[in-house]
Amino acid sequence: MTETPLLEVDDLVVEYDVRGFRRSPVRVLHGIALDVRRGETLGLVGESGSGKSTLGRAVLGLAPVTEGEIRFEGRAISGLGKRERRALSSDIQVVFQDPYTSLNPAMTVGDILAEPLAVGGVAKGEARQRVKDLLDAVHLPTDAAQRLPREFSGGQRQRVAIARALCREPKLIVCDEPVSALDLSTQARVLDLFVEIQERTGVAYLFVSHDLAVVRHIAHRVAVMYRGEIVELGDGDTVTSTPEHPYTQKLLLASPVPDPDAQATRRARRLEAASSGAGGAR
Hints:
Number of helices: 10
Shape: globular
Oligomer: single chain
Strand order of the largest sheet: 6-7-8-3-9-10
Order of helices and strands: EEEHEEHEHHHEHEHEEHHH
Number of strands: 10
């Protein structure tokens, strides 16, 4: 018997109303279908405006669902009310792109991590121990609990954001460009942390990124989005190294490589693909 996926997105359409008399809504997602299995990472890749972040927001209940359905553990969640959505937050969490704006600058790290625990009914003594465990899980010192977010580097703040997402022991974390604001060496360390946490806890990730090189490091499967549609979906190693769709090939050519000669060759191939119109294929 096939196990039910943790998250299922079925024929999802998202439209936004446009101001103006008799102006038609703008369709951002066009019948998206995908699933995320328990304990896996599904990379969702595309350029700005492809609709990838909108899909993540729809899963979180932050974007309107015009048509289709989103199911979590077999239960429809796209039409939940505020109270039901809050209850679901113990199972579905999020890590945003900018860790500083997603953390309350007036609260210490300890209070930031303790807040969702208190909402979940965890006693103060148990919450204090849980905060220590969370800081240890993301490789931050215990005294970080007494410090403010501004006292940390960008990579350290993102570790705090990851710890906050782990507070309620979720089954799925939506990661919306969580390393794009970090330098390359810090990116690698944070990606390794994501992998380590997944191996230890079994949490699943819907990992949104514009960079194929990033998702290659972490994703079991990869879905590539272009203009609100999925144009390629498959094994992570295959899609990020030998993609079939012209748009994915264009994304691959846009990814930097450390070898200058290889980078020059890749740049030339990218220009050739652009001139032939491959990047606009549907």
